[in-house]
Amino acid sequence: MDPRGKVALVTGGRRVGAAVALALARAGADIALSYNRSRGEAEATAGEVRAAGRRAHVQHTDLSDPAACRALVDASAAALGRLDILVSMASVYSQIPFERVTAADLQHSFDVEVKSAFACAHAAAALMRAGGGGRIVLVSDWLAASERPRYPGYLHYYVAKKAVVGLAEALALELAADQVLVNAIAPGPILPPPDLQDEESKAVEQATPVGRWGGAGEIAKAVLALVDSDFITGETIRVDGGRHVK
User: Fold this and answer.
1) In b/e form, how buried is each residue of 15-43, taking b as 16+ CB within 10 angstroms?
2) What phi, psi does 11 have (nearest 5°)?
3) d(C-alpha 21, C-alpha 7), whole Å
4) Which of 24, 131, 183, 218 is positioned for an S-S bond with 214, CB 3.0–4.6 A?
5) Would you call 157 a catalytic residue per the annotation?
6) Are 191 and 204 in contact (CB under 8 A)?
7) CB contact at 8 A, 242 and 208
8) pLDDT attached to residue 194
9) Gap between the Cα atoms of 226 and 181, Å rounded
10) Nearest alpha-carbon partner for 132 in 183, 74, 178
């Protein structure tokens, strides 16, 4: 799919999501962005989209609410005239020791990671069918894609991200006949958390075969590649600098 003249909705417009939105805008797409608490960052990204010569729509959305997800999709299409691309970036990353993790924590991870992706994709599919096809990109995690729950304290996060892989596969089957291609990206060491100590950051680099953090641009490149392809669907692509082979 050529992004020129198309409309993309990116849920989560900060950090990596901002890079993805800008890459799609520079490729010729108009951009809709959602945010929960990061309004300033979303508005700043929208400003950069407009500076690149594309239209932008920004909307506050509680992505854990399926009705709000549908409203976001409908409002984005109404504001920009259509919807061709959905990139579901919203995520909650937190460590909770096993002794303290609860069913509510697991449910919250599913609400944000899985239920929101499903609700947005379900609403977007009808619009994409009407437009003759589309692209949906979900975001999992390199550990979930590699079936390696190697870090204690992330049970709720890992299980939800594993479900995202299954969601991408199932959506790909359901929507293939409509030329709506669905894939997932599984990031590895892309951006160090703001509070990560230098020693810890260097340890990640040493554990990564290519020897460095990837940077948000690598996720944007992967999204553009999946949007461009007319034949890849149901795949989960690890963007992890080779972490899964070490």
Assistant:
1) bbbbbbbbbbbbbebbbbbbbbebeebbe
2) -90, 120
3) 11
4) 218
5) yes
6) no
7) yes
8) 83
9) 9
10) 178
Q: Taking the CA atoms of 99, 103, 108 and 114 in sequence, report the sign of the dihedral they define.
A: positive
Segment 202-213, tens digit of pLDDT: 999 999 999 999
Could you tell me the two tokens for 88? Answer: 């579901």
Strand 7-11 and strand 30-35: the pairing is parallel
User: Could you tell me which residues come within 8 angstroms of residue 196 by beta carbon, excluding any fewer than 6 positions away?
Assistant: none
Rounded Cα gap, residues 119 and 32, in angstroms: 16
Q: If you write DSSP's letter for every residue of the chain in order, what string do you get?
A: ---TT-EEEEE--STHHHHHHHHHHHTT-EEEEEESS-HHHHHHHHHHHHHTT--EEEEE--TTSHHHHHHHHHHHHHHHS---EEEE---------TTT--HHHHHHHHIIIIIHHHHHHHHHHHHHHHTT-EEEEEE--HHHHHT---STT-HHHHHHHHHHHHHHHHHHHHHGGGTEEEEEEEE-S-S--TT--HHHHHHHHHHSTTSS---HHHHHHHHHHHHH-SS--S-EEEESTTGGG-
CA distances from 56 to 8, 77, 103 (A): 10, 11, 38
Mean pLDDT over all residues of the chain?
A: 95
The two three-digit tokens of residue 2, written as one number: 């050529």
Give the pLDDT confidence of 40-83 residue by residue, as tens digits: 999 999 999 999 999 999 999 999 899 999 999 999 999 999 99
pLDDT at 13 over 80: no
Active-site option among 35, 93, 154, 157: 157
Q: Which tokens is 91 given?
A: 């995520």
**What pTM, to 2 d.p., does this model score?**
0.96
Sign for the CA dihedral angle at 48, 54, 59, 61 comes to negative
